[in-house]
Specification:
13 helices; Alpha-Beta Plaits; elongated; 9 strands
Amino acid sequence: MSDFFTTHLAEIISIVVLLILFSISYGMLNFVMNLLIKRSLRKRPEEDAHLLRVVKRILKIMLFISFGSALIALFLNDEQKAIIGENSNILWYVGLVTVISIIVASKVETFFIRKIKEKSEVENGDATSYRFLRYLVVFGIYFMGAIFVILAFPSLRGLAKTALGGAGVLALVAGLASQETFANIIGGIFIVAFKPFKINDVIKISDELMGTVTDITLRHTVIKNFENKMIIIPNNIINKEKVINFDLGDQRVCQWIEVGISYGSDLDLALKLLQETCEAHPLVLDVRSDEDKANGVPKVAVRVVKLDDSSVNLKAWAWAENFGNGFQVKCDMNYQMKKLYDQHGIEIPFPHRTMVFKEDQIDDLAKKIKTS
């Protein structure tokens, strides 16, 4: 046993020194990171503390791998030690680039979150650009971090240098833009730049797709419909569709109130009731000019728009402050007109079907009725 210790004394001392250094480093890392996390929880949001925990895990992994590499290197020759040392340097380089990328991205995201909050608190504030730039800049930071990580590997340096070069960037973007993912990114940039809609706008893309825009990311636009369901639409698709924006420009809405009456009903009374009821609704706006009022133009125009197969179709043009009020006016008017027309004997026609039977069919039917 004494011969073993004598022979391997240098290695044993080195292992003990490594263990001591590892214990000290591990303890200091825990102490410093825990201190930073506690301070963050006192002064900053939970997101910052989560970031520090991620950094702490990365540094611990780097520390464990470095200790393991140093331990293995004690039993290797000089050439093998050089290889271990080179790999350890790559490890630390990749780890530091990763940590720096995470920290910078987090700080940038915190900055944009603060700006978005400030814009949202201002009346008529538009935070759409900040929301989209937040995703774009954070993506750019991680992309550059990935490029610098690639630079650490000799076999991949050519790709990284090409991507970092001016012509390389253009070639890379041109090549990737044809792909669906980057087409969505370009679509998102167009949406933010030309502003066909913004966050909190009510838009309609089709009869089924309608709601409030809640977010515009690098890949897609998020719409919350009136059933409180989130609709995810890729930016590339939404740029190809016809979009109706109820909040772009003048937000007032001309709501059509349509109702059909039977040919035997009193047409003049039906028009009068429809007009008076619309004008009395508290959410209906008076958009007449002074000249219109002087000339006796009614607050709500009512017309006979069609003589249909089984009904005379009436339409009222009622203005509301916004889409939500207009929808409420339409619903209220449907209810009120049904009640009023019933009270005044004005029939709202519904489909009738006339059935013609042959004589033998009538006799068979009569027999069935008697036997039943």
